[in-house]
Amino acid sequence: MNKIMTGLGVAITIVCASVSAQESTVSATMNVVTATGTAESVGTVSFRQGEHGVIIEPNLAGLTPGPLGAHVHQNPDCGPGADGTPAGAAGTHIDPSSTGKHEGPYGQGHLGDLPNLTVEQDGTVKIPVQAPRLKMADLTGRSFMIHAGKDDYSAQPGGARKYCGLIK
Ligand SMILES: [Cu+2]
Ligand SMILES: [Zn+2]
After folding, report:
1. Cα(150) to centroid of ligand 2, in Å?
2. Which of 70, 116, 126, 142 is buried deepest, with most CB atoms within 10 A?
3. Domains of the chain (ranges plus CATH)?
4. pLDDT at 12
């Protein structure tokens, strides 16, 4: 009986641990941006709190190899903007301190500025990145955007909006 009770205790502990891990993780299904909205999915990106900021874990396939700019954008909307810009409805990079500056993940500008994601030669993106200034609460009701090119953390945030997903 004692052994059974102990076993049950372990099982309950494991179930509780996995439930709380799920609750503290949010994710975005990333879709190809088109002129009128979005098309097929290229995978997911999940977010969880790490010791030194939010850890961003991509699981994507079918992208063009190289570094690609990625940001947390203001609005949970991947549709075209009022001026017709694909995924323009997502708005700008989140900037709660109103800095008006794009300085990358290690600067003091937009909070939504993230490290570039690395697309490997086979088109997959699986290497996690860490956003040191970001907190999980900053992600609520936002969108995640991956651009067509590299973010130089200064004047060039990565070009066209290419993959977009709502963080939830
Ligand atoms: Cu962006
Ligand atoms: Zn920015």
Report:
1. 13
2. 70
3. 26-166 (2.60.40.200)
4. 47
How far does Cα 70 stand from its chain's mean position?
7
| Ligand showing the shortest atom-to-Cα distance for residue 33 | 1
Reported pTM: 0.87
The DSSP string of 96-150 is TT-------TTSSS-TTB-PPEEE-TTS-B---EEETT--GGGGTT-EEEEESS-
Measured from the Cβ of residue 118, the count of other Cβ atoms closer than 10 Å reads 15
The CA 51 to ligand 2 mean position distance, Å, reads 23
Give me the torsion for CA of 146, 147, 149, 153, rounded to 10°: -80
CA distance linking residue 60 with residue 44, whole number of Å: 6
Q: List the shell of residues around ion ligand 1, using CB closer than 5 Å.
A: 71, 145
Which helix (H) or strand (E) is 94 found in, with range?
none
